[in-house]
């Protein structure tokens, strides 16, 4: 299936989407995914020094849920993480929001995302700071995912945690083959998440859905203390590069790879997925509008950072990070020439085959909101301007 399969689906059902009520974040995503690399986004024009025919390059939307323009962003993000990650073993920890909270999540996406990040971060840092669990400050890379394999709502955080950290003497201390006992991490995580949710409710920040009364909410809240909470600690990785590659597939470009779409028509979208229970590839069929609805529920709230760094990887821990880097090094880099080839797009003249230079750009004027005003402007730029498509 073409990497424009999702874009084509949005385009074909654009009239039906206009009749639905959508939050602003979804309207922006619909506009971006529908028009990415089409004339509606404008274009840049390149020409060689011999003034042969111009080469047109349509602009990307650069929306984080768009798979069409995510490839370059994904490669750039991977290279940055490989330069950041310490060359030590890492653990992969997954914290899941109990599904009882899903109706409340839908009305409090940004708030619940912050709570989920905070509970995951504080659980890891508090436990690893205790001497019986290592007594170290670890490096933590954390990514928020809101989907399951079948695009259902399933909020959880993926945490890449160094198998060690700086001790009280600022020396590197390895943790060995185990992070912390799973029962302990589940208990601490449950307590923190519950306390943050209660605080948000008491401060009037939490919005309850119309179908959930205050009494029902507190009954659900109390009942969750008796349930098994899902915190999964994967086996230790020799380095964090494998998890970074896994996260990169979803951190840029949305939750679905167009290659998962096996068949599309006016009535059905057939999507393949990996069932994590039996590790088998399966297929599900959805109506096109149902598929689009599932996809849109995973568009992050505007301004929400879905990738965050804590501990040694936090921007505020530069001195500690530099000390750790001196002692451990970072994940090995790919040869620089290979990186440049992958991340730098060179455009060639279709007549003489020499590299072309940017001559002018054109883009449509956009009014406030998401409508596109077809009245456009063309801007000429210096030959020295570099291509940023």
From TrEMBL:
Cross-referenced InterPro entries? Transposase_32, Zn_Tnp
Family matches, as Pfam families: Y2_Tnp, Zn_Tnp_IS91
Name the domain of life this protein comes from: Bacteria
What region holds the Transposase zinc-binding domain? 17-97
Domain Transposase IS801/IS1294: residue ranges: 139-316
Q: What PANTHER family does this protein's entry cite?
A: ISSOD25 TRANSPOSASE TNPA_ISSOD25 (PTHR37023:SF1), TRANSPOSASE (PTHR37023)
**Name of the molecule in the record:** IS91 family transposase
Source organism:
Marinospirillum insulare
What lineage is this protein's organism placed in?
Answer: Bacteria, Pseudomonadati, Pseudomonadota, Gammaproteobacteria, Oceanospirillales
